[in-house]
Amino acid sequence: MGYFKNIKLNCFRNFNELQLEFSDKCNVFFGKNGCGKTNLLEELSLCTKGRGIRKDKITNFIKKDQNSFSNIAYFINENIEYQIKVITDLKNKKLQKKILLNNEFSSEVNKKIQSLITYLIYLPENERMFIASPTTRRNFFDHFIYSSNKKYNTLINFYKKNVYERNVILNDINFDETWLTKIEENISNSGIEIYKNRKMQADLFVKNLDNISKYFNTKFKVTLEINDPFYNENLNIEKYMISLRKCRAIDKIVGGTKIGPHKSDYIFFVDKNYPASQLSTGQQKTLVLLLYFSQCNYLVNICSKKPILLLDEISSHLDDTNTQLLLKIVNQFDMQVFMTGTNKDLFSFLSTNTNFYNISNK
User: Fold this and answer.
1) Is residue 104 located within the same domain as residue 132?
2) Can you give the pLDDT at residue 90?
3) Is there a contact between 152 and 146 (Cβ–Cβ < 8 Å)?
4) Which residues of the chain have pLDDT under 70?
């Protein structure tokens, strides 16, 4: 895996024009709130499939009073330089994001980009993961799974599409039973695969955290519980489909689907039975950073991938333990890191190999 050499923005978010050269190690964007630090991370995240770290509308990427944006990044992988161009494209009167690799656009080009770039993204809300909604924790798991399995998002989207289609069919008085059964079979197949992937990720967390916690001499041992009355490791397609049939009446009334991985929650405990949600803010951040260290270790040393780390507003609640842990993440693995914060002094613990960019002056 490679690194971003530079980037040039044109009419993107609050930037009219901006060009930056990057270190292949660590890069820090600092400046006052609202100057566009997160916008730079967002643009980097747009260089692959999806709507970026904030999952925003394409129209909101365009600078005010402009009609389009056009950003160009150069990415180095195995001494080969690739141009990645992200632009707006009007198709069927609908504005879309389009990614070109060396000015080429195709499904094969898209696959090539996915093979080149893997992201691990830290957002400020990750700090509150243990006290946030179950959706936040599911999304956290799914993001980490996708970092090692690029087919996983297709699985998630297929599952969501069929859940939605089942809801539509249930509200049709004269629905086709054969078609509904097929849809429920699709849900069962994809739902079980999602369960398997998340269980595998949960097991990876516990295994790696046990080893890493000893290394960092943290004072707690982490366990993880899957909170989902429907799920068990012996769940099969037949049992899943029977359960969906039994839920048809209530699902029609309530809307949605009562059972499935979209209802799961993942509860972290320390010292066997103490909820991670009850830890101090600094301790919760320690646990989150340990999870990122764990995933970096898994990707680099097991999967032979070098993710690009995008760490937004990472500098809050950085006590001595968290500072050392973040520094270890940066230095332990041979990968490119981007961070944002309001003040350069917050990152004084980083090495002299770090590039700093005052975005307030851009």
Assistant:
1) no
2) 83
3) yes
4) 1, 213-219
Q: What is the pLDDT of residue 218?
A: 67
Q: Note whether 34 and 98 are same-domain residues.
A: yes
Decide: helix, strand or coil at residue 324.
helix
Q: Are residues 282 and 339 both part of a single domain?
A: no
264 lies in the same domain as 333:
no
3-state secondary structure of 278: helix
Residues 151 and 251 in one domain: yes
Q: Which residues pair with 94 in a beta bridge?
A: 91
Which domain, by its residues, includes 189?
123-305
Residue 242: predicted pLDDT = 97
Longest distance between any two alpha carbons in the chain, whole Å: 69
Per-residue pLDDT, 341: 93
pLDDT at 51: 87
Q: State the CB neighbour count (10 A cutoff) for residue 329.
A: 23
CA distance 78 to 2: 7
Residues sharing a CB contact under 8 Å with residue 98, sequence separation 6 or more, in sequence order: 86, 87, 88, 89, 105
What is the per-residue pLDDT for 219? 67
Rounded distance, CA 287 to CA 272, Å?
15
Name the packing angle between helices 177-216 and 134-148 (round to 10°).
80
Task: Indicate if 215 and 362 belong to the same structural domain.
Answer: no
Which of 286, 305, 324 delimits the end of a domain? 305
What's the Cα-to-Cα distance from 132 to each of 129, 253, 295, rounded to whole Å? 5, 28, 21
pLDDT number for residue 209: 79
Asked whether residue 63 falls in the same domain as residue 149, the answer is no
Query: Closest Cα partner for 359 from 20, 66, 63, 68?
Result: 20
* Claim to verify: residue 294 and residue 357 sit in the same structural domain: no
Total tally of structural domains belonging to the chain = 2
